[in-house]
Write a structure and sequence with these properties.
The chain is α+β, with helices and mostly antiparallel strands. The strands form two sheets. The protein has a four-stranded mixed sheet with strand order 4-5-7-6. Strand 2 and strand 3 form a beta hairpin.
Length: 153
């Protein structure tokens, strides 16, 4: 059995910076679409899914600036409430943009995430939550379309 043996007697002091979490940063980036105001996020890890989400945000209409682990973004106007397959095909988090786009635009079309190397990870709870909030969801041809009450799909 592995174990740690600690010999000391001196109190530990100091600070250790923790890195940001991709799985916390992706929803925060998508949530920034909910406002036209500037948003600053810190401790955003520099990994591929984050860069893909940032490209999606730019495609949708956000202005994104990255400095180290700080991301500043502003989305005064959404120019396209769609996340095309070619942009998000490698990222399972594409469905996170669906709700904020429906909230801002009344409708959205997001290519659904593909297969995952670790097995099935359905987004049914995400879809269920949007429906409970009043969105109408249609899934067809590898994309999810959503509309708010009174908005056409």
């Amino acid at each position: 059995m592995d174990k740690f043996v600690i010999t000391g007697g001196t109190p530990l002091r100091g600070e250790i910076p923790t890195s940001g979490s991709k799985n916390a940063a992706l929803p925060a980036l998508a949530a920034a679409l909910l406002t036209a105001e500037p948003v600053t996020l810190r401790r955003i890890p520099r990994v591929r899914d984050i860069r893909t989400m940032q490209r999606l945000l730019v495609d949708i209409g956000s202005k994104v600036e990255t400095e180290g682990e700080t991301v500043r973004l502003e989305t005064p106007r959404i120019v396209s409430p769609e996340a095309p397959y070619e942009l998000v095909k490698t990222m399972r988090a594409s469905s996170l943009a669906l709700g904020p786009l429906v909230a801002r635009c009344g409708r959205a079309r997001v290519s659904l995430p593909g297969g995952c190397a670790i097995g099935a990870r359905p987004i049914n709870l995400h879809i269920f939550g949007l429906e409970r909030l009043g969105a109408r969801i249609e899934q067809a041809r590898g994309a999810g379309r959503a509309a708010g009450r009174g908005d056409p799909l």
